[in-house]
Amino acid sequence: MKKILILLLLPIFSFSQEINLEKIFKFSTFYVAANGGTSISDIETFSVINGLETETIKTPYDYNLSLGVRKIARFGYENKANTFYDGTEASYSDAATIGKVSGFEFLFELDYKRQEGINYIDQNHFLRYVANKYILKGEFVQDGFADIDYFETSQRYRYKINKSLSLNIGATQRIAEPYGYDPLDEWKLDNGNLHYTYLAIQEGYNIDVYESVYYNPAGEVVANSPEVWEMVIIPGILSDYTIKKRNELDRQWNYSLVVGFDFYHYTKEFWVHSWGNLLPYHYNDGGEFSYHNYNNGEQWYDYSGGVILGKRLNKQLGVFAEGKYNKYWNREWYDFKFGVNYIIR
């Protein structure tokens, strides 16, 4: 995998080979940070099966451990960075195809997070080289909450219509898990129901049908009624099985055509920055787990984009709206914000 990534990113370095390391990392920032806070409050649950019983469910505190290095020029509408990078910075403009300046920019950030008792990892890494006639980019995205994980490179021809608007077209290569593959399909009956009991037995669970006692692979009792078995235990078994089967498969290559645009206009009173990418055609390599197989062999549209708007209506009143949206392999992840600012004088 490392050799593949190096080969894919080689054009970026070859086009910028005259740039020495000192110049590449000049004005960049390395940071390590930890953030934490109280999570949701304790929850009391009650049971009357064996008399009144209460249980307090405690959720551990939230935290975020960040490690990163970044060199990205700020756009005119962006506030000056804090004195220190604390790992909570988030700029929608980082997802734009073209940066504020031409040349080489990068971001590498790894976040270990716990939120409401759930542990997950977020990663956002990219290398971007923007020239007058072409754009080269390689990026890796992992969003724990959205359950999306892929590596992508692209090589695009850039056509500048004017100083604000440019169009681009090229090719993109993506490596990701076989999205669309459903490990539970083989366990579905003709009527659409799931043969979950046999699946659980295959996974090592045992059932005493006479006593209605259910055991996990370690021989421990996990349920003593069909209701608890079906409502509590089976969902966990299906989730673990799905994750296991997907992890057993190799990652899939996706070769696609990409077209896009980037628009940036800024004054102190009004600014707009928008970008978009459309992948309208994908090469079908005939692989068993190609996404084409889960889309009835037909083409589909993947796309992403974002917009940042700001308007100062007068010296006291201003409005803003920002957001980005992604849809790859019929999986969506997005975020946005908008509001009004009024300064009392």
What does this molecule look like?
The chain has 345 residues and is mainly β. It folds into two domains: 2-181 and 249-342, no CATH class; 185-248, no CATH class. The chain is 14% helix and 47% strand. It is built from four helices and 17 strands. It has helices at residues 2-15, 21-25, 196-202, 226-248; strands at residues 29-37, 43-47, 53-57, 62-71, 103-115, 118-130, 134-143, 148-160, 165-176, 206-208, 213-215, 221-223, 252-266, 270-282, 302-312, 317-328, 331-342. The strands form three sheets. The chain has a twelve-stranded antiparallel sheet, covered by helices on one side. Strands 10-11-12 form a three-stranded antiparallel sheet. Strands 2-3 form a two-stranded antiparallel sheet. The chain is globular. The mean pLDDT is 86.
Summarize the structure.
The chain is about 15% helix and about 45% strand. By secondary structure, it is mainly beta.
Spatial order of strands in the largest sheet: 1-4-5-6-7-8-9-13-14-15-16-17
Query: Which percent range describes the beta-strand content?
Result: over 45%
Q: Give the distance, in angstroms, between the N- and C-terminal Cα atoms.
A: 59 Å
Please report the total strand number as a whole number.
17
